[in-house]
């Protein structure tokens, strides 16, 4: 599938044209966010999938294994229509990757970048190396949902409460409820458009950020209690660790561990917060956050991961001590 556009055409317009043609031809479009999708990845996927359906495309929305959503996201409109990766065609007409900083973040679905007739990549990670046939990659965007909103405009899809709920969830999550440095004037412009549809933004935020099982308090107490402050590492480092097994002891799913770093990052004496999350396969999923002085994307990329200047991560197959030694070494180079 190819669309002839004049030289110099805006990349968002090009992607919208590719997707519009797919819809007009009733082509099969597979959309996927990254593994263990967050609100931005899932909100982007669900909103664009619904927009393309309204334009007439045959749409399948999915995400890589493990095919499990946390309760904090499973309520988003359209989530009930997600299908496992095993249910999507091996060679779709169009494959759209959303909020994945690298092909590796697409897990078993990464092969569709090559097997699909056309691939479109929509992302806002600074560490994105550039992949896919058509790329809408803007590191200055506050969230991938902001780019999806532009694509929906380009497709002529009117924003309503269903779409706005998905977009607002991703926007609020990736801007820290508009507290982070990636919030720009046009971020608030987009938020105003979404609020104007009549969404219940307070309810969305409560479900995303302020709702957790009682067991979360016990887990948080244990994990915060073992936190370590290392003032002499880089601009200051605070770190702690947990595991999916420990979460289970408190009656919690493993994805509940993702919220730990947002508590640890509040430490005033450390510019960088690091949380190691032990996985069932023995690896460590490592979350990094910066208060501003350290580019944690550089740290994560050096260790095989990626992300943003203020929020990044990587996977380590070393033991806990070896993983932290690698983090310290990178921070001391910063």
TrEMBL record:
InterPro entries: DDH_dom, DHH_sf, DHHA1_dom, Oligoribo/pAp-PDE_c-di-AMP_PDE
Domain DDH residues, every copy: 29-170
Gene3D superfamilies given in the database record: 3.10.310.30, inorganic pyrophosphatase (n-terminal core)
Molecular-function annotations in GO: nucleic acid binding
Domain DHHA1: 249-319
Protein name: Phosphoesterase RecJ domain-containing protein
Organism for this UniProt entry: Geodermatophilus sabuli
């Amino acid at each position: 599938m190819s669309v002839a556009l004049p030289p110099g055409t805006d990349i968002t317009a090009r992607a919208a044209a590719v997707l519009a043609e797919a819809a007009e031809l009733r082509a099969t479009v597979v959309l996927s966010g990254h593994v263990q999708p967050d609100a931005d990845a899932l909100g982007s996927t669900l909103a664009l999938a619904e927009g393309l359906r309204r334009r007439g495309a045959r749409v399948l929305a999915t995400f890589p294994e493990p095919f499990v959503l946390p309760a904090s996201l499973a309520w988003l409109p359209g989530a009930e229509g997600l299908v496992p990766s095993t249910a999507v065609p091996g060679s779709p007409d169009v494959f759209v990757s959303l909020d994945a900083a690298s092909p590796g973040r697409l897990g078993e679905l990464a092969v569709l970048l090559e097997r699909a007739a056309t691939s479109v990549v929509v992302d806002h990670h600074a560490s994105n190396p550039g992949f896919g046939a058509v790329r809408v990659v803007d590191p200055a965007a506050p969230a991938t949902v902001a780019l999806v909103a532009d694509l929906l405009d380009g497709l002529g899809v009117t924003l309503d409460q269903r779409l706005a709920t998905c977009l607002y969830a991703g926007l609020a999550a990736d801007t820290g409820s508009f507290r982070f440095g990636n919030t720009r004037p046009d971020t608030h412009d987009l938020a105003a458009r979404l609020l104007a549809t009549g969404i219940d933004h307070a309810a969305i935020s409560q479900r995303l950020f302020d709702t957790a099982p009682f067991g979360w308090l016990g887990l948080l107490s244990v994990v915060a209690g073992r936190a370590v402050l290392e003032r002499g590492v880089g601009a200051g480092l605070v770190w702690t660790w947990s595991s999916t097994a420990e979460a289970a002891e408190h009656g919690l799913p493993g994805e509940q561990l993702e919220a730990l770093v947002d508590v640890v990052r509040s430490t005033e004496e450390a510019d960088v917060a690091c949380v190691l999350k032990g996985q069932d396969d023995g690896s460590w999923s490592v979350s990094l956050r910066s208060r501003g002085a350290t580019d944690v994307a550089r740290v994560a990329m050096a260790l095989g991961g990626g992300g943003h200047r203020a929020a990044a991560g990587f996977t380590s197959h070393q033991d806990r001590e070896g993983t932290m030694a690698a983090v310290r070494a990178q921070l001391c180079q910063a």
